[in-house]
Specification:
9 helices
């Protein structure tokens, strides 16, 4: 194939990547509203994959749209639980954290190794833990349920209170479904909040990148370039 026939700014990778991202988005939405292992989600992985393989506006808009739609579904299913209301303060920093996943994905856009994808996913899971729990501590006094919290879960406005918040969050888990009994109940008994988050990010990220590598046609520019010749990106 003549490399001159490849339209500038386009890649044969993009249509396949977009199709995979759309399927991954549906999976992410479904996984949030059906019984699943606690914190085992594919939204973060969708952000990393989209950041690495989609156009910028698509990469940021897709996980944001998935969160908005699935939160509306959860808000309805749970009897209009305030936690899933789009006006709840947690939606601001949770959504912002998923945008950071996309930024991490863009940082590995030229990488395709399992190691780089796994490291990006681990970094994504860690930043999600830090960002969301820091903001939970920061805004806790303004939460509507603050007065009903036991004293042990009211964190002081200092470094020790922040440290306690992170410590309490490590084993914390929370299912995002109104169904109490589900096939993964044995897993939820392990109470591994942070590990489940990272496991989900790593598993789905590697799966999305591997499927894309398998299905995407090879870039004709790269395929026809002589060995040792650098191809402009």
């Amino acid at each position: 194939m003549n490399a001159d026939k490849v339209p500038e700014g386009q890649s044969p990778y993009r249509p396949v990547a977009f199709a995979i991202a759309m399927v991954a988005g549906l999976l992410a939405a479904m996984l949030r509203v059906v019984p699943h292992p606690p914190n085992f989600s594919s939204v973060g992985a969708l952000g990393i994959f989209g950041g690495a393989r989609l156009r910028t506006w698509q990469a940021y808009l897709l996980p944001l749209g998935i969160m908005l739609l699935s939160d509306l579904a959860l808000w309805t299913i749970t009897g209009f639980n305030d936690k899933y209301s789009l006006t709840h303060i947690s939606r601001v920093y949770v959504y912002a954290s998923f945008m950071i996943y996309v930024f991490i994905g863009r940082c590995i856009s030229k990488q395709n190794s399992i190691m780089s994808v796994a490291l990006a996913a681990v970094l994504g899971g860690l930043q999600f833990f830090v960002v969301t729990n820091f903001c939970e501590w920061l805004f806790q006094p303004w939460q509507p349920y603050y007065e009903q919290l036991p004293e042990a879960f009211r964190y002081s406005r200092d470094v020790s209170g922040l440290a306690q918040c992170f410590l309490m969050a490590l084993p914390f888990y929370q299912t995002e479904t109104p169904v109490a009994a589900h096939p993964f109940m044995l897993f939820s008994d392990l109470s591994l909040g942070l590990p489940w988050t990272i496991i989900g990010d790593v598993f789905f990220s590697i799966a999305f990148f591997a499927i894309h590598e398998r299905l995407a046609p090879k870039d004709p520019v790269l395929a026809e370039a002589p060995a040792g010749v650098e191809v402009p990106s």
